[in-house]
Amino acid sequence: MKFKGRDVIDINDFSKEELLYILKTAKKFDPAFVKSKKSNYTIAQGKIAALLFFEPSTRTEQSFKSAAQKIGMGIIGFDDPEATSMHKGETFEDTIRIMDAYADVLIIRHPEPFSAKRAADVAQIPVLNAGDGPNQHPTQTMLDLYTILKTFGKLDKLKIAMVGNQKHYRTMHALSAAMFKFSGNKIYGISPKGLEMPAEFKTKNYEDVTIDMRKLNQTLAEIKPDVVYAGRIPKEYMKGDISKYTYQMSIKTMEFLPKHCIIMHPLPRIDEIDPNLDTHPNAIYFAQARNGLYIREALLSLVLGRI
Amino acid sequence: MKFKGRDVIDINDFSKEELLYILKTAKKFDPAFVKSKKSNYTIAQGKIAALLFFEPSTRTEQSFKSAAQKIGMGIIGFDDPEATSMHKGETFEDTIRIMDAYADVLIIRHPEPFSAKRAADVAQIPVLNAGDGPNQHPTQTMLDLYTILKTFGKLDKLKIAMVGNQKHYRTMHALSAAMFKFSGNKIYGISPKGLEMPAEFKTKNYEDVTIDMRKLNQTLAEIKPDVVYAGRIPKEYMKGDISKYTYQMSIKTMEFLPKHCIIMHPLPRIDEIDPNLDTHPNAIYFAQARNGLYIREALLSLVLGRI
Amino acid sequence: MKFKGRDVIDINDFSKEELLYILKTAKKFDPAFVKSKKSNYTIAQGKIAALLFFEPSTRTEQSFKSAAQKIGMGIIGFDDPEATSMHKGETFEDTIRIMDAYADVLIIRHPEPFSAKRAADVAQIPVLNAGDGPNQHPTQTMLDLYTILKTFGKLDKLKIAMVGNQKHYRTMHALSAAMFKFSGNKIYGISPKGLEMPAEFKTKNYEDVTIDMRKLNQTLAEIKPDVVYAGRIPKEYMKGDISKYTYQMSIKTMEFLPKHCIIMHPLPRIDEIDPNLDTHPNAIYFAQARNGLYIREALLSLVLGRI
Asked: Which of the residues A221, A243, C44, C92 has the least number of beta carbons within 10 Å of its own beta carbon?
């Protein structure tokens, strides 16, 4: 396994062993596992991360900025592409090459699929994909895996109920594919009719569960999942009786679930999760977000060859 | 006295002894008192400050960013709430919790009163109030106190003429209340009629001096203050003969004041102070702004438990 | 030679010896010359650079931010003057003075000529001019000199063909003047009619070469330059048959040039250089941009008195 100088573009570029190595490395940045108070700021001092956010994404940007600085890096970049030279007619490739000249690693967010790959093709330094439209967001998938591993101590023989928009949600597509690398997992894709996962993203361990969302609790009670992974249902795609697509997990939902079942969500949440659930010990979506810090500290350290 | 982990929301939450301890700590960051050239960047390396500016405030934001980095911290956050997930419908509380996950201290500026308190209620890490609308801006008050202490070596038995809008100016309200904690101080609130300080903010040592502002110099000559604290007069609230509300301190004003009297202003100033006064040794408003750095370095170090 | 505390406003403020010293210092930050992997982040830890960008300039801003952080500095400032207190009516001078209070060096970009000088007049800390409209951009000129020196090991007895808008291009004006400080250089200012360099910027070693730009290759073949310095031709200033002003250097152009001739460009480029030229070893415009990092690291270290 070699990580130094490597691009992180697509979760599928990583073998099961590589993913496990990354997750293991993330533990070194997680206070839950590291009792020493030693800080990590000496890991990459003097190195620069360029964050090129061609579309806004608060939590991904803030998490990467925090992670980079926690290991001692400086940060440059932009989160408003209007502010760049691109408005003077500069090409995407030239923008990438100039930032490549000023930095040691590029972190790119862009609304178009495969833009991170295009960036990696011209950059000499490692490129981390922070979301390329509907396509990939590999550090999100890695932090999801890390959260599951941290909870259960394993990534196999688990039942995951993914609830919400299976069709357009790259997070659901990628997590499902990643869990398929590990044995014995079963994914239940719970969605209203019309938002089922497209065939090209379905793995053998994936099962459609198309329901009226008013019956979510009963459906979960039948599945008995280890993880409920909730996401937004885009009402703009739905027609007719909107209540069929409306669901909200709450403290009540927990009664229908196994005692050990955790609730995950990539955030931001809107109505999918009632704030009264937030204080439940199994509602770990904010801890899940924090796990993103450790994954990103680990990845930055690895691609810079500092671990 | 315990500062580690503490929120800094309201100047009135701090006892006289606590305030003096903070001011004493600030001296450790002030080259006027520390002759050693030792830098402070090792104090909080690897720690992250999240600056959540829901409304712009150049000098407060820049001062906090400088202070945080001077003690080695990294910085994340935003100064344009439009750029955050809140436009996707995320609640204020969720935004606070997600930033709480990524940082070690939160610094919040918000146009609504008590928003810093709301943030502190959900955040697990210390929250510093960088101004919650008309309510509080405790680090401004602390730097005002520090500036007075640095000049006179004491915070009691002083006469302070606060000139300008007493009614809407949180800086005036809070400074007056803070000086009341120390003995023998007298505050003169000089304002045009209609801009007197509201009764709920008045302390026993506060005296209204309602005047036609064209008579400011004579009034100051009678008071013989140790400190003139100037602020903006909002002409938008005034009616009729506007010249009655127009005052401008200038080099001429100094002739009416005791030789030792200093001129303070929270800045930015518009017409209240003629630039010809800037070079006078008693015009210390830019030095006052710089004192804000030392107060903020001290507070960050204290709430992080690093001093 | 004394650099500590010095302002960097105009390339003409520096003697030949001072320029050579700056270029020599830049080598210490350039991996091409420094084989040690020792990082430079200890040089200026705890120091703060304030970047005041009153107009956007991606690469200059990013390059300064990278350089400052590579030597350990923190950064504050703004790149959207709307976000500053200036919209509250604060003067330029007050904005400078307040940032002066919070930082250790000011880096200013402003659309108006001599604004950097105005800033230096009120600031107590060193001011670096990052471009004051049509006037000066001294770090650009220094990185141009550095790139030439790095390539040829000398700055004299060279032929430079500057291609494009000689009239409005401060980069051309300043590079020409700077090369005149060194002996035996010859500058050919190749432009369409109407875009010749104004008389006040012409040095004795400068020669106008006014041509139909369709004849660029033949003209270059006659000149046999060591350096081609390309820049944008502003079509908005041109009338009539636009093709006369249209030129594009490409891989084909190299056949007309001496084998050792390098192609420089301050970037961003639009149509002046065909991307098919990018991979040619003599096309060094992205390396040239990277050289800006070393110049800026050197200058910041010098004016802070840390080298």
From this structure: A243
